[in-house]
Every structure is written in structure tokens, then in C-alpha cells.
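Worked example 4.2. Below are the chains of a multi-component assembly; read each line carefully before continuing.
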Amino acid sequence: MTDEPELTGPELTGDDRLAAELALGLLEGEELAQARWRQGRDTDFDRAIASWEERLMPLIDGVRPVAPDPRVWEQIAARLGDREEGANVVELRRKASLWRTYSAGMTALAAALALVIGLDAARQDPVVQAPAPQPPGATLVAALAKEGGPAALVITYDPNSRSLVATPAVLDPAAGHDHELWLIAGSEPPRSLGLVATGKSQKITIPPALLKSLGTEATLAVSVEPEGGSRTGKPTGPVIASGQLIRL
Amino acid sequence: MADRSRIEPSDARSRLSDALARAGRGSQSALAEIYEATSAKLFGICLRILGDRGEAEDALQDIYLNVWRRAGSFDPERASPITWLATLARNRSIDRLRANGGRRGSDPIEAALHVADPSPDAAASLETAQSSARLSGCIGELEARKAEAIRTSFFEGATYAELAERSDVPLGTMKSWVRRGLLQLKECLER
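Applying the procedure described above to all two chains together yields the following C-alpha cells:
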């Protein structure tokens, strides 16, 4: 025992500490980005977060319920009409899961397809490109989602134009925020591919230096960033969707 | 909207889980049920955090549209439905607060929000009164500064840096307070 027993003593540590800090909203910057990154990927960590949410949520019991204006429900109900959005998401998920199934057993076919696409590309584009870096020759696709959630964004790599096409499904950044797309190749740090537009398909040109990193080992992720994108060159906000590139 | 008599917690919980599952499959009437049972509670949370009625109404809209999109991912094995919903409401409100530069509104209604409602709606009765009383008891055992830091973070999403600035203590000190507080809290709740 010391003079101030309340202000000394053991602290919460490890993943349990990180989970509590994430649940409370204490983290920011790099630590927040990393914790968010693990969310939805690490089951034990997710369970620890859920436990802290359960522990702390009774604080809410002290909050007095207040009936909202009936017009709020009317506005919500009116927007439920956007059910195509939901249907699209289901369709995208179905496709993504089909792609995954195909890609598992059809490597040979994919290789053949890549060859065909490669030849096709060569025919259409007789201009000889610089030999290096070597971009992938196949069409690649990634369905970006928060684990267990609907696909938020589908990204297709077009080997002909050497660019990505991003098709957002459900992405709406809060006011004052933007969504930024990141490429993570193996253990390399995330590299920005720019901001993701909302509500419409968008072509993203890939910096030549990053072309060789694009492949089935690569993960694409979307993080929430201040308006205009991360100022540090690294993801600073929560990762809201991620997915691995697979060969189509 | 039908008059609702007080529901047993486990009954309300399974009803809400069931409605979430149906909403996840696209049932608008299931979402309406969820809204009816929980909107007053969630609106209370939005108001408590945002302190501005207009902001809270906008947040509430976002929250139920989010529920609509994400209901399919709710897993009753992993979380209670009201915790899941309240977490969505809290996180969304805090995001909104931060997007506004962390400035809370100051609606007079806020003064009354700490007071527990003597006649809770269906959602409020979902969580047993005991868990609330236990948490209050355990927070009450904490040293005041630690308790205040945890509360402020919970209701305002205040980060360590913000808490340290407000209390005018070094960042490391604040981290220690909170981390000790969290461990004490966990141990107390497990007793």
C-alpha cells in the first residue's frame, strides 16, 4: 500500500486494454487505425471488444429515453425505398462468393484466361510499353467489406488500361470526411491509391511504381480520413472495408 | 403504434433479435418494429451525446438506415440486440460530434438526461436493472478522476489526448488512470 492506493497499481494490458480503449473511443491516429484494422479479422479481439461494449453499455441505462419527432421515421421509411441498393449488395456478395469458388479450383483456367487477355491486350495496344515494372496480366477483382457485412465497394483491375475501376455499393462518409483507398502488398506498409468517390463508378489510375504490387497477394482497404485524404501518407482513421484481390 | 406493456427482458431480447433477423432479410415491417421498440432509447443516446435536437434527429436517421443495411450481420450469439443497437447509436453520434469539430450543442433537455426514467420504454427494460446497478456500483468504487475520465470518453468519445488536456495532466498520467480504472472496473464486475 502506498500513500495514494487509488492512483497506483496494476493496469489493464494487452489486447484486452486495446479492446477497451477501442470500445470507449480513446484511441486515435496510428493506434486507432491498427485496432480498427484488426476488427473483423481477429475473432478473439472482436470478442474482447464485444465484452467491453457489454460491460460499459449499462452506462446508457442512465440516459433518459426521449421520443423522436414522428417525422424522423417518415424520413427513414422514405429512404428504405432505395432497396435496389440492398439488392445490388446481395448480388455483389453472390458474385464475390462465386468468384472465390471459381478462383479456388480454376487456377489453370485463370492462367489460360490471363494468357488470352494478355494476347488480346497486346493486339489492341501495339505500342510497346516499358518492360518494367511488370503489371499483372489478368483481370483482378476485390469485393471490399467489413467482415460479416455487405460489400461496400467492388474493385476491378483492368489489365488493358492498367487501372482500377471502383464501384461503390454502400459508402457514405460522414460530413467532413473522405474515404481513401489503400493498397497493402504483403507486409509492406499501406500505400494510398487516392480518394474513393461516392455514389458513382470511378476509374483509378495506378502509379507505375505500384503496378507490380498488384496481385493476388495484395489487399485493398478503405479508411475514413479527413476531407481531402490522410495528411500523413498513412491511414489514420478506421478501416471500414477491406478485401483481397482475386483473379477473375 | 400499439400501446406496449412492460415486457420481460428475455422475451423482449429474443423479439428484438428476431426482428433484426427479419430486417436483415429485407422486411420493412421488422425495421418498423425495431424502431418502435428502441427509437426513444436511441434518440436519448443521440441527444445525450450531441446535445442538439436537429443533429440528434439526423443521427437517428443514419442509425436506422445503418441498422437496415447491417441487420443481416447482427449475431445474437455475440451481442445482445440492444447493446448492438446502442453501440451503433453511440458510435454514430460520436462520429457526428467529431465531424462537427467536437462541439456539443447545449439543448436545455440535456440537464435532465442523466436522470433515469421511471417508466422506461421496451428497449430500456431489455437490459436488466441489475447490470446497470452493478456498473454504477463499480464505477462508484473508482477514484473520482478515473470514473470521470471513463464516463467522458463513453459519452463524448473523448480520446486520451483530449481527456489529458481537459484535466490538465500529462498524457501518460491520463493513460495510467484510465487503464487502472478499466482493470478495477473489470475486476469489480467479475466479482
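Take a moment to check your reading of the output against the notes. Residues 13-62 of chain A form one domain. Residues 83-105 of chain A form the longest helix (23 residues).
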